[in-house]
Specification:
Helix content: 25-40%
Shape: globular
EC number: 2.6.1.44
Number of strands: 14
CATH class of the largest domain: Alpha Beta
Largest sheet: 7 strands, mixed
CATH architecture of the largest domain: 3-Layer(aba) Sandwich
Order of helices and strands: HHEHHEHEHEHEEEHEEEHHHHEHEEEHHH
CATH superfamily of the largest domain: Type I PLP-dependent aspartate aminotransferase-like (Major domain)
GO cellular component, one term: peroxisome
Structural class: alpha/beta
Strand order of the largest sheet: 2-10-9-8-5-3-4
Protein name: alanine--glyoxylate transaminase
GO biological process, one term: glycine biosynthetic process, by transamination of glyoxylate
CATH topology of the largest domain: Aspartate Aminotransferase, domain 2
Enzyme class: transferase
Radius of gyration: 23 Å
Number of domains: 2
Distance between the termini: 65 Å
Length: 455
Amino acid sequence: MSSMFSAKPRGRPVDRLSLIHRHLHNRPIVEINTPFSTERISQPSEDIPWLPPTRASSEFLPPLQSRSIVKMSQQPEHPTLLIPGPIEFDDAVLQSMSHYSESHVGPAFVATFGETLSMLRKLFQTTNEKSQPFVISGSGTLGWDLVAANLVEPGDEVLVLHTGYFADSFADCFEVYKAKPTQLKAPIGDRPQLDEIEKVLKEKKYRAITVTHVDTSTGVLSEIKALSELVHRVSPDTLVVVDAVCSVGSEEIQFDNWNLDVVLTASQKGIGCPAGLSIMMVSDRAIERFKARKTPPGSYFASFKNWLPIMQSYEAKKPAYFATPSPQLIHALHTSLTQILSRPLEERFAAHKKVSQQVKDHVSKLGLKQLASKPENQANGMTAIYLPEGVTPPDVLPLLAKKGVVFAGGLHKQIAQRYIRFGHMGVSVVDDQRRGDIKKALDALDASIAEVKSS
């Protein structure tokens, strides 16, 4: 046999395992701009109560004495998920996911999808019939592509207001579509000030300005109303784009009154629906800007040319097709929106503010600080908490998990090992009296911090 087919020595099994282990090491070999690369080193990998994905039988569970999880509603026992999304889900929302299979162009589903789109108008607080809601299978990240592919063209200048990790990523997305993003940054835990923004807007013409309403990496809340007023006064042709993935459902947004052009979000956070839907409200001004493009959209799947007639048809209760939606997720979203809109939105936002203040007061009493140190910068749906000096997320997160609570590790790559993130939104807030999620989380935080300090 020719030498080119000769097998090379394979080496000992332990050597091969060593090579494999190198690829599984906790620290990324090459730094990449994803939450996973910066957050995974903070997540506990041991001592977390675990449930198999398809069975909840006790034969798969750790011994009872080694886990601390609470029966919640009719769902299988599991640790309380209090990260900044996905969040805990209501039983009725999850039950909607078990809807029998149906045609995505059949009359029953078309009616449900149409009602869902109409309900989104109420959630975003718009009565302008020329504005358009979109619901497309994908994550919140797809919203960036929809903006960059349709509302800016190659060479266009875009001003990206930076309050954390997600501004970096939105800027990266614009660069993929050959736009020219300029980031206006603030110190960690703060946000760009209006006078700074005004100065930059006067220096050149920007096609769009983007702002992260709540940056999940820092818990910083941006002021949208005053920002939009500034943009319309100083640079009226600039589109106002709001990344509201971590704010819709827990922070007030008035699409019409604040003169917004795009608000993009996702299903799994304040809206309280399982992940998998990219949700967006687009103004008539933005749609007209799209129609006046000189170049075709830079994407096929994310093209308004393909999706706009589909959304208009579904909302008119008429079947249409471009790409197959997820009927089960649409049913879940319909149920979640029905619940949200069953009470005045003001009550929902007030509940989130009340619980947020409770959490933040408790954190302060523990002697801990927030990344967002100024009250006006603090989100109502999450809190980013600095740990005591010398304490890292891997010291605290496993202790919380043992007590049946899951928080998130740090995400901002400059300080990821110094803080943790507590998500408090959705049913954990509006149904707190029955569920007790917030008290359980604060008690677990107390005990875990005390345990770390005494060790």
